[in-house]
Amino acid sequence: xxxxxxxxxxxxxxxxxxxxxxxxxxxxxxxxxxxxxxxxxxxxxxxxxxxxxxxxxxxxxxxxxxxxxxxxxxxxxxxxxxxxxxxxxxxxxxxxxxxxxxxxxxxxxxxxxxxxxxxxxxxxxxxxxxxxxxxxxxxxxxxxxxxxxxxxxxxxxxxxxxxxxxxxxxxxxxxxxxxxxxxxxxxxxxxxxxxxxxxxxxxxxxxxxxxxxxxxxxxxxxxxxxxxxxxxxxxxxxxxxxxxxxxxxxxxxxxxxxxxxxxxxxxxxxxxxxxxxxxxxxxxxxxxxxxxxxxxxxxxxxxxxxxxxxxxxxxxxxxxxxxxxxxxxxxxxxxxxxxxxxxxxxxxxxxxxxxxxxxxxxxxxxxxxxxxxxxxxxxxxxxxxxxxxxxxxxxxxxxxxxxxxxxxxxxxxxxxxxxxxxxxxxxxxxxxxxxxxxxxxxxxxxxxxxxxxxxxxxxxxxxxxx
Length: 466
Ligand code: URP
Ligand code: ZN
Ligand code: ZN
Hints:
Blueprint: E1 3-7, E2 10-12, E3 17-19, E4 21-25, E5 28-33, H1 35-38, E6 47-50, E7 55-58, E8 60-65, E9 70-71, E10 74-75, H2 80-89, E11 92-100, H3 107-118, E12 125-131, H4 137-148, E13 153-157, H5 168-181, E14 184-188, H6 192-204, H7 210-216, H8 219-236, E15 240-242, H9 248-259, E16 264-268, H10 270-274, H11 277-280, H12 302-311, E17 316-317, H13 350-359, H14 365-379, E18 397-407, E19 426-436, E20 439-443, E21 446-447
Parallel strand pairs: 1-6, 2-7, 8-11, 11-12, 12-13, 13-14, 14-15, 15-16, 16-17
Antiparallel strand pairs: 1-4, 2-3, 4-5, 7-18, 9-10, 18-19, 19-20, 20-21
Bound molecules: N-(aminocarbonyl)-beta-alanine and zinc ion (2 copies).
């Protein structure tokens, strides 16, 4: 088993920062040591990585991705192979992707289909949530079996009637099951029934541009659904994790619930922190690149999101990576915004955008690691194997150059999509060398990993509830 010594870096975790050498034996971190102690390891080391002037941070945990997800008559353009490789380049070493139940079918069939897509091709480790698209007696029983297999979180949709939508009764029943089996219900909180009325009215009035997507998916309808989801979770006695929160009014609902001491958690995504309805309104159909749900909001919402991230009313930043090419996919919605496939690319950009947020004074360096690594690992039952730098944990490590400057561009990114949502943005800070379970998968910007290195991670239940 290879022994690796990472020397001279500032080790940053959610809990502390200290100069230490990191000793890796095989797949795990075995010690954090002062340089004179680590000296004794030098002769036995197979690889020594110089981390002078660098941070040594845990590999990012992106708890919300959709590799090759079918949506709106097309399929998200990153496969598990291309998407996990791009994640590695961006300093993320674990993804939790969403397996989907088909309506009329079982959770088993959906999960097996996602295992088949991911097995043997991933560059980094991966786990699954399960999307409940058809809650019925069989589904509810199957939830228990999936929890035993390490799929311990279940997403439901209050949006997309006729596709992925669950009604309040179905949601309540699934939450009751989760209260019983320890799973974490996740919610796409938007009032999809009301939104569909507004979509039909907008199209009938000839309002077909991408920016109308943001206008009909109103902040109030996100807040209303968030409120309702919290109420249903209270009645069921289950915890709740609200995904891709974008509206200030929805953050208010989370704050109120958390002030009552409820096990309610919120996630937001870089697109809501760094982009806005101004991007959705770009001319010549360019706004389609920014169509996702929940939608981008006016920039005024961003201060509430940053405040929520600081106060822990929002506890996780994931990407909701769901890329569709501008040419051939996003343009399915020319002349009808409701046909634009929903989703943005970002799995490669998250760690750097959040590091930029540290430099810009929005969050602290440790909070960066907490939001992007430690809390998602804890929330989804992977800690301390993932999400920190500690003896006994997986050697998923990033040697991060906090001074590297670069310009984000589709011309240089590794995601399989023909545009970048952050094209032209100058960022400071970049993953330099990335280890996944002790194997160097990115070496100073060069890919050294291989498809199939990444393994499926069965997860424990949410560690905030034990
Ligand atoms: O627009 C989005 N978010 N696409 C992915 C599916 C979802 O709702 O998370
Ligand atoms: Zn969603
Ligand atoms: Zn999503």
